[in-house]
Amino acid sequence: MQRHRLCLLLMLLFLAACIREEYIDLPASEKPRIVITSHFTAGEPLCANISLSQPITSIGSPQEVLPAGDVTLAADGIFLNRLFPEQGPGGRLFWKSRALLKPGVRYSITARFPGYDTVQASDTIPAGISAVSMKIKKDSIRTVEDTTGLRILRVPIVISVNDLPAQRRYFAFGLQHELRKSGPTPPNSSETKVSGFLANGRTLALTYGTPEGVFLLNENYWNDGRKTIELEVVIPYRPNEEEPTRLLLEWRTLSEAYYRYHLSLATQGSPLSDPDAFFNNIQGGYGNFSGFARLRLAVALPE
Amino acid sequence: MRIRVLSFLRVCLAWALPLGLACAQTEVAERRVSARCFNCEVQTVIQDIAVRHHVNISYQPNFFSACPRITVDIQEEALKSVLERLTECARVKVEWHDDQVVIRALREYVVSGRVLDVESGEWLIGATVRWSGSNGVGGSTTTNEYGFFSFKAYEGRLRMSAHYVGHRPQSATLEVQADRFFAFRLVPDATLPEITIRNVPAIVPGSAVLLESGRRISPDDMRQAPMLGGEADPMRYAALLPGVVAGVDGLGGLHVRGGNADQNLFLLDDVPVYNPSHALGIISIFPSAAIHHAQLWKGDFPARYGGRASSVLDVRLRDGNPHRYGGEVSVGLLAASLSFEGPFLRKLRRSERSSEGASMPKNAFLVSVRRTPLELWQGLFRSQYRGALFLAGDAARYRFYDLTIKANYQFSERDQVHFSLYSGGDLFRNQFLQTFSSATALLNERYALGAIWGNNIVALRWSRTLRSGIFAKTILRYSRFYYQSQQDLLSESFSLASAKRKVLANYAQRYQTFIEDASLQTDWEFKPLNALTIHAGGSYAFHTFEPGALTVNFLLPGQSPLLADSLTKALFNRERVKADESSLYADAAWEFSRNGRLEAGLHVSSFKIRNRVFRLFQPRLRVSQRLLKHGQVWAGYHRMGQFLHQVGTFNLSFPFELWVPTTPRVLPEETWQYTAGLGFVGDGWSVSAEGYYRRLSRVLALKASTTALLIAGAEDASGWEDRIIAGSGWARGVELSVEKRFRHTALSATYTWSQAIRQFPDLNAGQPFPFRFDRPHVLNLSAQQRLARWLDMRVLWVYASGNPITLTALKFQHQTHDDNAQVREVLIYGSVNNYRLPNYHRLDVSCRVHFQTRSLHHEILLGAYNVYNRPNPFFMYLDGASVSASGQVRAVQYTLLPILPEFRYSLRF
Question: Which fold has domain B24-105?
Fold first, then answer.
């Protein structure tokens, strides 16, 4: 009995000492700053989400800056547009330009809101590479079916990049598949879904998911002289209700600001690794204002 | 008859001739000569005597070039005594041949030998050997790590004495007419002062031995210091020295002067050890009962050491007692150990022991085994308090073990062979079983994980003392470090209605990494001059790396095992890399004056991998000069490099972090260190201060991401060359040390101010940031008191600035207009390592009771680690969801080592 008491005492001491809640003073807190998040590409108007930074303890959506401000866009230093607010997906407010954007032009955004520091950011839509191709290894396509009737199509593909630049190899890719619905309503309609994929360990280790729905490729991926990416696309579907018809590839050529920003985000959120400092290219505020070039490819899946 | 007469005459002639010659010699030697000269050179006086007294005296005038001018007034004295007096100032010998007198230079011979403890048979390292010849020439030297010494002495009678702390000096007289070998056998002195401060810089006032680089740690130092669990440990002891920082509360490796943990070279009897600790760094692998001594160099290591860029911890094991069997049983809270030693060829020992004058041959073995008793504790806790912390789980098991075998055989007084074997490892296993039930089904989940890791080391060493006084050792060695882990998850449901079993998830992972070396090294030590000691040698190592092989087998929900679609091929990385490393080195220690010493060396190494060769040139230089009566100043420049790197997400030198080689894309790391210091040692006190500045180039880190494959206990090595980033860094600091010894009390204080910075182009926007183990202020205070003959008490207080970590108080939401885009919360980390954890401090107290009953020596160590239960932070994260009333952010802090008892009972027999 006494032995048990001793053990209990030791255990309590151990537990009491091992975890402790503590209130700390973090690096001096600052008043909210304007946050701009915008990725833009050629042939589309500029859309920027403008919000405020928050203390880490705040819960819920950030307080959006009301449209009382003045947001302007300049091209190569010359005034181009005054942005206007418009409701976007999810009812969020975006500041939009009327002019469509072009590659190679240096766009600058300036936002002035009463009570906050004026913020400014600049970036360019890079010249996108065009010699990208996607090939399906038809002989290696496999299907796996589980007991619930879900069928999984595994489609090995090879993405080739033939005009790989010598430097600034900043790319991202996204995969989607198109499913033709064979159900009653609506008949013969189709639906596009984001595809998952498998790859070898090196490719997975050098690929980072982003909130944009595309996967960022580490620039070191191309270090060994390769010009291809081999993936196995995973397409789950229910054969009685739908049928995969096309595989869609979105290939993005990124500006450096786009690449560095998402690379710095890739180290956040894991207690196991040290986070990198967040890449910020907004002067006077936070966020990211960066351009990218987009290339879309579609390949029909064999029946 | 005629023949007999001739034989008689021949015998007479044979006797008469030498007698005649002897008479002639005696006649010349005793011839009375006179000379008178005022302020003359010695050779002038001799020449004058030769001419005036018709004596043939041959000599070379330059024999007397070092002699001062003399004034003589010799009246009818024997030529022999006159010449002896005149040649006293020169290193010459007078020989008498018929009527010819030959004055020739004295011949030099090499006197070498070893110094050993007569009771234990162990070689005494750092013992001082002093000598003086009949011509008045003398000097001193110290023994090397094999107890070996050598010096050059002139022919004639030589008086030698050997001195070592804790032993009675021994003197001997030798007639040197050829190269000689002599073994001193020192008797331990029981009448020495009761407390010996062993860690004061090894300079004795008045001694000719100057302070050398490197800090020696004796087993007594470790035993007397309060240590975690009472376990004597050279690594934890080294962490108390100025300039050395342990990882987070002892977890992980050592960080010396701003260096990474993988930049430390750990040697166990000359063999590199890749994972020097058990239990993620809580305790080192070095068996305390078998340690002879350890020596730490904080970057200023001699050129004979290479392969790492920051420090060397050279641990030497005892050879075993060649005279009698004995051993030690020790039981502590962290480990229980048994060691046994003795001679293994007793018959041979007896016959050789009787030969006086020869060195004492050593044939002995030593076996030491150690194992953690933690399983007992775990079992106790598990049965009573299931679910507590790391003991959570249904079958949590952890243990480590060490096996050390050492044997040596001395073929002759000059040849000895050592065989060393070390095998040690850690094992961790745990299993979680959970069952959920509903009205229609049962859900079973079984999660098992485990890991084993360890080192295997074998070495065969041949040491030989050549007649020319050269000490040569050649080592054939093998070292392997391995890590393997596994995880299995099986989730299945049982339908109560249909009694059918359905596999919901089945996941299995196997991971392994290892590094293996086979190497050959030869090292030659010789003294061309008494003031000059040269080490030269080379080594070749063949490395094999497996940075990490990950295999995964994954069944999708609902899949039957027959349809198992394995990812094995997709995630299999069994890359093996082979490399050759070779090195050549030479270093010289030159006592250029009575008070000055210069150590200079060059270590050149090359590394061949994938048909590419990388080379490193590492010059080392250190000058020391005696200052006033008790002091000394020194300065040094050292350049170090390494071809092997350990990288991982934690950068804590955890066993699952990867050892990888230099490749064309991962270049060798290099460090430049400048040091300068001064020290004073008086009777019972010492003060020293040393400053350093260090630059690090191509420091490596693994840039991990949250989406990269990182599974607990495994560090997927896929594409490791492409995930490593290289940067640079610098560190600077000042280390102060004060020690004072009274009769029964010893006090010491060490303080370090330091700064360590890192800079990576791919981290922190290319801006410099504090190194993760940068602790600007470290203060250690220690007091030791002898309360009775059988009772010592020691108190240690450790204070250090907190480690920097990366925290933030701000966030924003990332949202773009794209259809597929998701909202993500982004934490605004302004810079890396922008916040410091609370300061670290703790108080350790220990009492050592030691007594003897018959031939058994008992020692009991009782104490407490972290007496006032300071919750030193091991890890901290922000609880963003809650805030204090004062508006401060709430952080949750994990502490690794709270108050812990220390206990060890040792029985030596």
Answer: Phage tail protein beta-alpha-beta fold (3.55.50)
